[in-house]
Amino acid sequence: MENEKEQQIKYDGKFIKDGKITSWLREDMCATLDSLEQIVGTILKAKPDKIPSSFGVRDVYVVGSALKGSSKSDIDIYLRTEGTDQGTNDILKKYMFFALCEGKNKNDWVDTYFGAELPSIGCFEGKPNFKITDQIEPELKKYNKNIGAPNIKLGH
Predict the structure, then answer these.
(1) Sign of the C-alpha dihedral, residues 153, 146, 88, 114?
(2) Which of 27, 45, 51, 78 could potentially form a cystine with 61 if both were Cys, beta carbons 3.0 to 4.6 Å apart?
(3) pLDDT tens by residue, 114-152
(4) pLDDT tens across 30-39, in order?
């Protein structure tokens, strides 16, 4: 079960101000979803047995140390998928690193993580997380539609 108390905290910093994502983070989330769409499209073309809906994104969280408000931190984004396995998650993370981090200063990285479980029980157990799904809902719906998974229920 999601930690509701954690979700009520209003983090302030480079990425979130007064409980809302900053324009910097919104731009980076658009770039993140665009890159992910291209990578998933390539995977689906190469592996027609893969089901597009398994790559659908249900929720997006800012996780880890970026929530402490440091302007000198990179940002970790956790994308909760509909049903990717660990091997696929690792491949997505690797390709997303090359798309979003390679050649940039570490403070400008958008490091992405994937999984079907909630971040509080996954690789970010015990670390702060802040759900931003509702703040980027139009972008998520567009991504899901474009990969062939328009029926993904956001926030579930």
Answers:
(1) negative
(2) 78
(3) 988 877 766 777 788 889 999 999 999 999 999 999 999
(4) 999 999 999 9
**Rg of the Cα atoms in the chain:** 15
DSSP letter for each residue of 43-112? HHHH-TTS-GGGG-EEEEEEEGGGGGT-TT--EEEEEEESS--HHHHHHHHHHHHHHHTTTS-GGG-EEE
Residue 44 near residue 146 (C-beta atoms within 8 A)? no
**Beta pairing, strands 110-115 & 75-81:** parallel
Encode pLDDT of 41-60 as tens digits. 999 999 989 899 999 999 99
The residues facing 80 across adjacent strands are 59, 115
Give the three-state DSSP class for 140. Answer: helix
Among the listed residues 88, 83, 103, 94, the one whose alpha carbon sits nearest the alpha carbon of residue 149: 83
